[in-house]
Write a structure and sequence with these properties.
The chain is α/β, with parallel strands linked by helices and 249 residues long. It folds into 2 domains: 172 residues, 3-Layer(aba) Sandwich (Rossmann fold); 64 residues, 2-Layer Sandwich (Alpha-Beta Plaits). The protein has 9 helices and 11 strands. A 5-stranded parallel sheet has the order 2-1-4-6-7, with helices on both faces. Strands 3-5 form a two-stranded parallel sheet. The chain has a two-stranded antiparallel sheet with strand order 8-11. Helix 1 runs parallel beside helix 5. It is globular, with a radius of gyration of 18 Å. The two termini are 22 Å apart. It binds flavin mononucleotide and iron/sulfur cluster (SF4) (2 copies).
Length: 249
């Protein structure tokens, strides 16, 4: 059983590739939150996995809410793994995951990280398609290697590019610094299709007079609205319109 969160498709693709290799199934974390269904019976599972993006060296608000609310029911704890997608470093995401798993009597047996295109386009430039595809080809090879290690129930205590535990204090202030949905703007090319609103994982967009409006308190800054807009009408600051849109196929 593989739980995942994915805003722009990297983690969905990683989860699906690993699930296919292992003959497992994938479950989006957002569905548990949407249906307020907070118990998962994992007693018959051989292994259980969590696959999600790194946000500000730690967990996204969505993964954090999932871990805070979920209860896992089991008698013998199954082999438990984490795969974190990252652009520059997965930071302390494993530290935070373990912290939340502890409350359910669980812990990570293995942790892996996969370098992907970095979807934080206020900083990172994804406009070079060839460069983006090269990173994705490399990530597919890495996911194959990881899948076979998971199949063998390998114990792994450090993931690639993980930072020491004492950098964990960076996560909260950094995420707060990034989290400014009031800075989203929408251009004239918006056609009012509502795709941004309908796909927002936390319901942080309202349509008013045929245009999106960001509700300040709820946004997770996943940038799904910016990357998914068919007219590329959503910007965040001055760089995103130059840095391109990205959705993993
Ligand atoms: C708000 C936000 C914060 C991010 N923070 C980090 C980070 O601290 N370190 C990193 O390496 N990548 C960071 N990223 C990049 C994502 O982890 C990466 O692109 C991931 O593959 C996205 O997964 P998805 O396509 O499944 O949503 C961040 C992305 C976003 C949107
Ligand atoms: S997805 Fe783009 S075009 Fe559609 S309503 Fe949102 S901003 Fe406008
Ligand atoms: S408003 Fe946009 S950035 Fe914020 S959570 Fe929704 S889709 Fe993600």
């Amino acid at each position: 059983m593989i739980f995942y969160f994915s805003a722009t498709g990297n983690c969905k693709r990683i989860a699906e590739d690993i699930a296919e290799y292992l003959g497992d199934r994938t479950l989006p974390m957002t569905e548990f939150l949407r249906f307020e269904s907070y118990t998962a019976d994992i007693s018959d599972e051989k292994r259980i996995g969590f696959i999600m993006p790194t946000y500000a060296y730690g967990l996204s608000l969505i993964a954090e809410e999932f871990f805070k609310k979920m209860n896992f029911a089991f008698t013998d704890r199954p082999y438990t793994f984490l795969v974190a997608a990252y652009g520059t470093s997965p930071g302390n995401i494993a530290f935070f995951t373990n912290k939340y798993l502890k409350k359910s009597g669980m812990k990570l047996d293995a942790r892996f990280s996969v370098k992907t295109p970095d979807t934080w386009t206020p900083v990172f430039d994804l406009s070079d398609i060839e460069k983006v595809e090269k990173t994705n080809r490399r990530s597919v090879r890495e996911v194959k290697r990881i899948s076979s290690r998971i199949k063998n129930c390998e114990k792994v205590r450090r993931m690639k590019m993980e930072t020491p535990f004492f950098t964990a204090f960076i996560h909260k202030p950094l995420y707060r610094m990034l989290n400014h949905p009031e800075k989203f703007t929408v251009s004239e090319s918006c056609v009012g299709c509502g795709i941004c609103k309908n796909n927002c994982p936390v319901g942080a967009i309202e349509m008013k007079n045929g245009k999106p409006h960001w509700i300040k308190t709820q946004c997770a800054m996943c940038l799904g609205c910016l990357h998914r807009c068919p007219k590329f009408a959503v910007s965040l600051g001055k760089n995103t319109s130059k840095h391109g849109q990205y959705l993993r196929k």
